[in-house]
Structure formats: structure tokens, C-alpha cells
Design a protein that fits this description.
- With about 80 residues, the chain is an all-alpha fold.
- It has four helices and no strands.
- Helix 2 crosses helix 4.
- The longest helix is centred in the N-terminal third of the chain and has 17 residues.
- It is globular, with a radius of gyration of 11 Å.
- The two termini are about 20 Å apart.
């Protein structure tokens, strides 16, 4: 994948995984609640895709958090 900051995409995925686990959700449940394919959740969490804003919105709604919380992580 050619993106400007692949490390940021990976950090975002790790953060999403931690939020999902904090909410005691499986990838399948999060995918169903967000109405996205389960494989997409896995690809995002592994940092394999640079996801869209509409997918991020769906994920934040499924996690019952404000979308800005998806970006509240340290990328060092």
C-alpha cells in the first residue's frame, strides 16, 4: 500500500482494536453494528487499508463514541 504515513494507518487500526475490545465487541459484532463487512474491520485493525470517513462514522456510531475519539491516540 502506498500512503504518506503508513505508521499512522497502523496506529489507527490498533486504536480501533483497543476501542472494540474495551467495548467487549467481536469484530463480527462491530461489523454488523456498523453495517460493514467483517473482513473490512480486520483490514482496518491490521492497518491494511486507509479507510473512508463514512466508514469511520459508522464505526464510531457502532462503538457509541464521538468520531473524534477514533483519532485520540498516540502515534509514536
Amino acid at each position: 500500500m502506498k500512503v504518506k504515513d503508513h505508521n499512522y494507518i497502523i496506529a489507527f487500526g490498533k486504536h480501533l482494536r483497543s476501542l472494540r475490545k474495551k467495548n467487549k465487541l467481536s469484530q463480527e459484532r462491530l461489523a454488523n453494528d456498523a453495517d460493514i463487512p467483517i473482513s473490512q474491520v480486520g483490514r482496518i485493525e491490521r492497518g491494511e487499508v486507509n479507510t473512508t470517513l463514512s466508514t469511520m462514522r459508522a464505526l464510531s456510531k457502532a462503538l457509541k463514541i464521538h468520531i473524534t475519539e477514533l483519532f485520540d491516540f498516540d502515534n509514536n
